[in-house]
Design brief:
288 residues; alpha+beta
Length: 288
């Protein structure tokens, strides 16, 4: 299979749903977020591609204030220009000054009013620092999130079976999660499974992190991991449907599970979904 680069200036509309659950001992945190977006190729050169991202509507339903702040960060980043390699790897974030200006001319001020001071002050400080640290900001789009739908080594010839090493940097705080991926390609369908790259995993650091989180000192730090992905493409290179799932856990003490689903929409379906999300947003009560 060869995935070709989609045509320029053709908006592709998507509904992206993310569900996340984190369990640490007896404490559980979870959220579900729906986002209505478009992703469009706007420039193609021999050395790079440029994609325009737009967020039209999003609804966050979470169990923590931090989840709602994350949703606000999506609102801040509602219009972005990404530069990638010709194959599709993210390399740069363009027009960063527009993002800074939006933050400085009302967005930050509105968040100060929205949240309790003791909660919001350190987050605003960290966000301000992040906007001044471009390499770190670009890296924030490279983790295991719905951005993975768009930023991979996509535009190339695929073999029927492939292996790949992937490192999710700072997945456990300051600890990386090294993975071994196995990819199978049948027609325009790509399925991927993953396992822990044991030799590259810093198990001692991970064990110390678990002790700090759970205050338990007799935990077997054996990491259980499940990774499953599926991508369905059209003949013209468009991503039609996709699912990502990653779960990491240690017994009953620690578990983080995240699932991401992407569905391409027609213009009519996009308008219908936009109305649904607008109505849902009115019904969702913030926990503060």
């Amino acid at each position: 299979m060869k995935r070709v680069i989609p045509p320029k200036h053709v908006k592709e509309y998507y509904l992206v749903t993310t569900a996340n659950k984190t369990t640490i001992g007896q404490k559980k945190l979870e959220f579900v977020q729906d986002k209505l977006i478009s992703f469009t190729l706007v420039d193609q050169q021999a050395t790079h591609l440029v994609f325009e991202y737009k967020l039209y509507e999003q609804v966050m339903q979470g169990s923590s204030l931090l989840h709602y702040y994350s949703g606000d960060m999506d609102e801040l980043q509602s219009e972005l220009l990404f530069k990638t390699t010709p194959e599709g790897h993210l390399s740069d974030l363009l027009q960063l000054n527009n993002l800074k200006l939006k933050w400085q001319t009302g967005f930050e001020k509105n968040l100060k009013k929205k949240y309790p001071k003791e909660f919001i002050s350190p987050l605003l400080e960290e966000t301000t620092k992040l906007l001044e640290d471009k390499p770190k900001l670009v890296d924030s789009f490279k983790g295991y999130s719905s951005w993975r739908f768009f930023f991979q080594n996509w535009f190339r010839n695929f073999n029927e079976e492939e292996n790949e090493l992937l490192t999710l940097r700072h997945y456990f705080g300051h600890i990386d999660l090294p993975l071994q991926l196995q990819r199978k390609v049948i027609g325009n369908l790509i399925t991927t499974t993953g396992s822990l790259n044991e030799p590259a995993f810093d198990r001692n650091a991970f064990s110390r992190m678990l002790k700090d989180l759970t205050h338990k000192y007799n935990i077997d730090a054996t990491l259980d991991l499940t990774l499953e992905e599926q991508y369905q493409f059209s003949e013209d290179g468009s991503l039609e449907n996709a699912e990502l799932y990653l779960s990491t856990g240690v017994g009953i003490w620690y578990n983080v599970s995240s699932a991401h689903q992407l569905k391409k929409l027609t213009k009519a379906a996009f308008q219908e979904q936009r109305i649904e999300l607008e109505n849902l947003k009115k019904e969702v009560a913030l926990p503060f």
